[in-house]
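Title: Comparing notes on inverse folding

I've been comparing how different people in this forum approach sequence design from structure. To keep things fair, I'm posting one structure and asking everyone to reply with a full sequence. Here's the target:
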């Protein structure tokens, strides 16, 4: 019956309506976010309309950060994301885990408060400023990721990541350094002005001056 209606002259109207409905229901980026932790409105923060944040009172995100579609932020035990971060699509950030506790407690699992469950994991997550988390990545409880890092797509971050690290894999391991990646761009004076970490810029300039002094010394 439905097929006959759809194939009739009215079918085009139905198709138009359904396409319009699907367009309206598509996820979209929401500009601006009120941070309940700092009590400040971040006008440059962009979070997708379908991102799931479990506890906004424990979700601290800096301004000019971005979280793309279909991601989930489990902030039940606290999540802090620095300014200028980018979180890709289908990313999961978790601050608790029951994957051990459910086996140990069996049918008693739900009868106990989560704080009394043997094997139940809890821990906050912190992501440093200007760090990029690639699509489909997972960040587990009690993990701190430094500033200026890159987490490759589909990575599983199970332990602390130092500043400027490039990590990838399951489990994620260090495969590079963003300071080396950015080095060729620091030759541009405009980039040096806008670069997020002026300490890195100063180190670059000092090294450059030292090389110039060495060259002058060799010539003389």
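Reply #1:
Here's my take.
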């Amino acid at each position: 019956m439905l097929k006959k209606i759809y194939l009739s002259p009215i079918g085009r109207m139905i198709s138009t309506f359904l396409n319009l409905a699907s367009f309206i229901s598509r996820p979209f980026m929401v500009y601006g976010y009120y941070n309940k932790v700092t009590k400040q409105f971040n006008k440059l923060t962009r979070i997708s309309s379908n991102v799931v944040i479990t506890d906004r009172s424990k979700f601290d995100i800096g301004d000019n950060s971005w979280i793309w579609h279909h991601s989930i932020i489990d902030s039940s035990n606290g999540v802090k994301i620095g300014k200028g971060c980018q979180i890709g699509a289908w990313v999961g950030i978790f601050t608790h885990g029951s994957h051990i506790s459910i086996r140990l407690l069996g049918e008693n699992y739900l009868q106990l408060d989560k704080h009394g469950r043997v094997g139940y994991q809890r821990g906050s997550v912190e992501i440093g400023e200007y760090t990029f988390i690639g699509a489909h990545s997972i960040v587990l409880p009690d993990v701190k990721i430094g500033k200026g890092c890159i987490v490759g797509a589909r990575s599983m971050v199970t332990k602390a990541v130092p500043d400027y690290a490039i990590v990838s894999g399951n489990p994620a391991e260090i495969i590079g350094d963003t300071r080396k990646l950015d080095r060729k761009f620091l030759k541009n004076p405009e980039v040096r002005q806008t670069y997020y970490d002026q300490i890195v810029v100063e180190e670059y300039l000092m090294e450059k001056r030292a090389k110039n002094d060495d060259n002058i010394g060799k010539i003389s």
